[in-house]
Structure formats: structure tokens, C-alpha cells
């Protein structure tokens, strides 16, 4: 990815496929060691990722299996779909975009201490 400093942040997912997320908002962290951790808003996730040039692929992702309200479960489904296969990504101005605008994620940096997903 671009730099280890950017990878160590927690990113709050603000939109999926152009649709704003609802509370509790999903969040992801991309570790320097290739580990992705986070929350879908309902379930916790953990896996690994590979980054090459301006593309990223999440691999071996595992989830807890809790049920939530239908809207939250739909948001989770869309989040997981946006992380499937190779996706483009880019950083800039405290933002992270993964995938295309019509299906991808738009994330903002979490405020320090506001989201814990480790």
C-alpha cells in the first residue's frame, strides 16, 4: 500500500456503493503485516490482504456470526461484496476509496479513540 503510516489507521466506512452507511458504521484497519481487522457494524471480521500497485485483494476473511436488524445485515452484505476479489484503492486527504464508485467503499479516518476494532 502507499505507506505503513496510512495502513495503521482505522477507517470508518462512510458509504458503500454511493449509499451512506448507518450506525453502527462499519470500520476496517489495514495492518502493515497484511492483516485486515474490523467490524461490519454487526459482526467482527479478520483476514489478510495483498496490495499490489493500486489494487488490493482481501483473502481468508473470517466473521463472527451474529444476527442484526435487516438493514444492518444488508449493509454487512454490501460491505463484504465490496471487498471481494481484486479492487482498486487510493488514499488522499484522509480518505480511502476501495473499488469503483457504484459498488465500492468510501472511508474516512476514524477519530483517535472513537473506534476500536483490534
From TrEMBL:
Name of the protein in question: DUF306 domain-containing protein
Species: Terrabacter lapilli
Pfam families reported in the protein's UniProt record: META
InterPro entries: DUF306_Meta_HslJ, HslJ-like_sf, Hsp_HslJ-like
Positions of the DUF306 domain: 8-102
